[in-house]
Design brief:
The complex is a heterodimer of chains A (268) and B (275). Chain A has a domain at 1-89 and 200-268: 3-Layer(aba) Sandwich (Rossmann fold), CATH 3.40.50.300. Helix content of chain A is 36%, strand content 26%. Chain A has helices at residues 3-11, 58-66, 105-115, 120-133, 149-161, 179-196, 207-213, 247-262; strands at residues 13-26, 30-43, 47-52, 73-78, 81-82, 90-93, 167-171, 199-203, 216-221, 226-232. The radius of gyration of chain A is 19 Å and the shape is globular. Chain A starts with a helix and ends in a 6-residue tail after the last helix. Chain B folds into two domains: 1-41, no CATH class; 49-272, Orthogonal Bundle (MetI-like fold), CATH 1.10.3720.10. Helix content of chain B is 77%, strand content 0%. Chain B contains twelve helices and no strands. Chains A and B meet through strand 6 and helix 3 of A and helix 8 and helix 9 of B.
Chain lengths: 268, 275
């Protein structure tokens, strides 16, 4: 993709969120506002991360974009189509292990393709290609129980990207992994993203991760969830994990931490 | 070495050291039986001596093949219908609220009822014959399966369903690719319980007044106070039950190669108790 082309394509809005509200009924206090009047856009081919203290509604936001939760008010658009329910144009990688234990690695990755009735040959080709991308070639016939946590996460990612979704959502995907596995996966996922350039909405509570991965970081404030600040991340790509030790990176991380602290709200 | 053994699905029993403790109890009982009958400690009508049992076996051997086949056919038919009906209605109850309200009420109503108490009613309604006997076995097993199926579905981790939803699965696909595979390992336990129960139900069903089968032979022996014959028939029933149970256990391994069974019961015991 040429530079100018990339830029103009990037200015296009992929997801538009307008005055989003979400609340749930509570026996003691009536209605709890999880998200209140939230508006922002995600650009095409952008890697956007969302950070915020727990309870700021970031997972709820992701679930609404995924179509798993109905919004309480406002609207969410994907390419000017309003989102109503889940669809293969938006897939998700969850924090918890969501790999189906009863399918092999191949069966798991193939799942979305089978549902969208992709032909057998095309399916085999795409599964093989995606497994190569995530570094799982040769593991096709294994069951998830035979894999490590990091490998299962790779299967999860492969299953979500094999259908070439327009938007990939990730809900703290690497939070449950040990630090070494996590750093490797971050770097490798960025490589995959560099090749595919999907629009990614990535939720995390790890500021370092948020900065390392993103084009822009959205900092959310808690109770009710709203946007505290949106930060542009200037670091050039491709990024390697050494970046995290650079002073510029550390300075930005510190500033982001202050923003987050100032918007924590009264959380017990 | 030890850890390798622990990874096995079934502990090895070939070695004499493992086998010996398991044989102690049966051998001791056998010895006790011989001693008791040799010294005439109990009247033979209560505990017949081994040679009587053997003689009785020879005497009945002409009748046995037909009786075993009859019983086997009845039990397996009733058990099969019960498992199928129970599982399907459990799935249907989880799928649709209308079905749940309707069938659920029936299950809730029939579950606490002792099935054996229904025997006289069954005879009254359906008469004497195979049909009411099979119905009794089917009823007893389907209640177990219906309730277990619904409970198992209730315990399917929501994350799998959400994952399937984001990958484009509709309700039917979620049923066939998530819910059914997830509950199968849970159902196997219930199926084994139901299988064991169905033999008891068969005995009761044959007591209802059948003219063939192992249970009928038991009644016959009882009428003439042939205790040795009863012993033989009980042993045959036990063997059939063990056989069916083993078969289901084998089938389970075939059906669910994905399940995590890293720990055999021996590993658990070595952690929580004295191995």
């Amino acid at each position: 993709m040429k530079d100018s082309e990339a830029r103009s394509d990037r200015d296009a809005v992929k997801i538009r969120i307008e005055h989003l509200k979400f609340s749930y009924p509570d026996k003691q206090v009536g209605w709890v506002d999880v998200i209140d009047d939230l508006s922002f856009s995600v650009y095409n081919h952008e890697f956007l991360t969302i950070v915020g203290a727990s309870g700021c509604g970031k997972t709820t936001l992701l679930n609404i974009i995924a179509g798993l939760l109905p919004q309480g008010g406002g609207q969410v658009f994907l390419d000017d189509r309003e989102i109503k329910g889940p669809g293969l144009d938006r897939t998700m990688v969850f924090q918890d292990d969501a790999v189906f234990p009863w399918f092999t690695v191949h069966g798991n990755v193939e799942y979305g393709l089978k549902i969208s009735k992709t032909g057998r040959e095309e399916r085999a080709r795409r599964v093989a290609h995606t497994l190569e991308l995530v570094g799982l070639t040769g593991c096709e016939g294994l069951y998830p129980r035979q894999l490590s946590g990091g490998m299962r996460k790779r299967v999860d990612v492969a299953r979500a990207i094999v259908t070439r979704p327009e938007v990939l959502m990730m809900d703290e995907p690497f939070a449950a992994l040990d630090v070494m596995t996590k750093e490797n996966l971050q770097e490798q996922f960025l490589e995959i993203w560099n090749e595919t350039r999907m629009t990614v909405v990535f939720v995390t509570h790890d500021l370092e991760e948020a900065l390392f991965m993103a084009d822009r970081v959205v900092v959310m404030a808690s109770r009710p969830g709203r946007i505290a600040r949106i930060v542009d991340v200037p670091f050039a790509r491709p990024r390697l994990k050494d970046l995290k030790t650079f002073p510029e990176f550390q300075t930005m991380r510190r500033e982001l931490g202050h923003v987050l602290d100032a918007n924590r709200g009264q959380v017990a | 070495m030890k850890s390798r053994k622990n990874d096995r699905l079934q502990p090895e029993v070939n070695r004499l050291g493992d086998l010996l403790p398991k044989l102690v109890v049966p051998l001791a009982l056998l010895a006790l039986w011989i001693v008791v009958s040799e010294f005439r400690l109990v009247r033979p009508i209560f505990i017949p001596p081994p040679e009587d049992v053997w003689k009785s076996f020879l005497g009945m051997s002409a009748l046995l093949p037909h009786a075993i086949l009859t019983t086997l056919a009845m039990t397996l038919t009733g058990f099969g219908i019960g498992v199928a009906f129970g599982t399907v209605s459990g799935l249907a109850m989880a799928y649709s609220k209308a079905v749940r309200d309707f069938l659920g009420a029936i299950f809730d109503f029939t579950r606490p009822v002792p099935v054996f108490a229904l025997i006289p009613l069954f005879i009254l309604w359906f008469g004497i014959g195979r049909a009411p006997q099979i119905a009794l076995i089917a009823l007893g097993t389907s209640v177990v399966l219906g309730v277990t199926t619904m409970e198992a579905i209730r315990n399917v981790p929501p994350i799998f369903i959400r994952a399937a939803l984001t990958l484009g699965a509709d309700r039917r696909k979620i049923y066939t690719t998530v819910i059914v595979p997830d509950i199968v390992p849970h159902l196997i336990g219930a199926i084994r319980v139901a299988a064991a129960a169905s033999w008891g139900l068969d005995v009761a069903a044959e007591f209802m007044g059948s003219q063939a089968g192992l249970g009928y032979l038991i009644i016959l022996q009882q009428t003439y106070l042939r205790t040795a014959g009863i012993v033989i028939l009980v042993v045959i029933y036990s063997l059939l039950a063990v056989l069916l149970d083993t078969l289901i256990a084998r089938l389970e391994k075939r059906l669910t190669p994905w399940t995590e069974r890293r720990s055999s019961i021996g590993v658990v015991a070595s952690i929580v108790g004295n191995a």
